[in-house]
Amino acid sequence: MIGTHLGERYELTTLVQEGPIFATYNAKDKVLGRDATVRVVKPPFSAEQRFLDKLREVIKGPGSVEHPGIERVLDLKQEDNLAYLISEPSKGSVLAERIRSLAPYSVGVSVSMTVSILEGLEALHSSGFVHGDAGAHNVMVQPDGTTRVALPGIWEAYAASETAAVVMLPAMAPYLAPEVTAGEALTPASDTYSVGVMLFQLLTGQYPYAADTPVAMAMKHAQSATPSARTINSAVPAGLDDVVRRSMAKDPADRYADAGDMLEDLRRIEDNVRFGKGAAGAKTQPVKQVIVAPSDPEAPKMAEKPRAERKEVEEREPGDVPIWMIVSFTFVLAVAVALIGVWWFFNTNAPKIVKVPEVRGKMRSDAEQILNRRKLQLRIAGRESSEKLPADTVLKVDPEPGQQVREGGTVAVTLSTGSRMVTLPDLRGKSQEEARQILTKLNLDLDGVNTMQDEKLASGLIGRQAPGPKSKVERFTRVNIWVSSGPSQPPRTNPTAAEARYLYTMRIRLTRITNPVVLKVEITDAKGTRQIYEAEHYPNEDVTVRTEGYGPEAVFRIYYDGELVSQVTKRADEGSPAGAGDTAGGTTGDTTGDNGDGNP
Fold this sequence. Notes:
elongated, 15 helices
């Protein structure tokens, strides 16, 4: 979509990130002359009105917080089947890409970057909001090294969609706190857990836990011991390792309460690192490890017990299960049940995944049938000329054939308009309406409709055209026609003013419109009211309509798409009547003024 103009205002210049729901672009705001960030909502979510309504609601809350470290979402626009978010511009690159290519970072850079993330979240938390999806995929690293956290609170809209939560789960799972996957409400402490994961990534270049599926990842966060970044990267000071472990504590009560709480420790460490004093630890005791079942291979080894205590354990009855084991088993079972419930909900309610079939080169009707068999919808995204494929044939497909989408999704296709050149048909002897229908099928348009006298041609039929018949012209060329006014009448010695014919020329400029309209012109003269012109035209286009009217004065009415937009009264006060045998004289009705004289 690069180069596309949205709303005749935003020009998409660079693709920043392609996600499952949004395609993020850098853009130019042509109206205000500044940069912007545009997130185009991808199908099928762009057609889910409940999801879009919830997005519009969210951006009035968390998305309205003003702070350099939080991306402010300005508006949600909808145009036909297209929807997009407008945000403040964020230069730089996505943190997830930085980590993938550059991590691990030095201690100083890791701490500084995390401090910047927390400063933005602190503004959000102090305003009473939770981000909810504070992962590396939603953080932009700007050229000066500062960060901006994107899409605050957008997670709330996912619940309003049938599939949004499902497609976002793989990206969110590595950062979700255990209480969130267990079904509890999000809190600022949930965000500090996510920040702890990002700090672990910056220091080590890897996630704290490895898993093949989102559900398995969530279970790791709930059950496995909180890892130590220091065991992976020996350069990490013990004090900083304490901060990481505390931020990722299983129990929210053992965690940093909010971004401001975590900032106190990290700023102290940042200052110590800057001045070469080493990294002091957290201001509180190191976080306690969660107790897990001994069957978990990742469980921390129990410290060696005193000999007397070991003997007491050994002498217990075989059926006397230790309390710690009962508590641990109960906790693990509860988490497993909760996660299975989440998995069941997402997977039983989600539409089936299907592959986009190959429909390029197919006629539109055939492509629609093929897509319908896969329970997919066809949407026409545009039309382009093609010298190889006939009109109404599929040229392009988005998503590409072979890509996976959910049933009920939309596939956007670009159709061929056929060859750029077309042979102009012979319109002579046909009515104006017949000519319009013939030209429309060839993507040609009527331009000027003029009148002429022809002794052999009945009134209302076309006697001449330009360009001429069989001319090779480009599609969308505008064709002029001359319509016969019929055989000339026997000359009259002294026709009355009401019976005399006068030549009128109307010059119309189509203003105050932004889209093409059907222009229709009617004349009311001594013989009554009749339509003299009808054709589609574009904004600011100049149209000349010539016709004959009966009597020295006529009223012209101008319509856009059937709606009356102007009425002009003209008197034939110059020249002579255009009667039989006379030279066509009369008046010129120029409608390009601004005082109600016909300029719509």
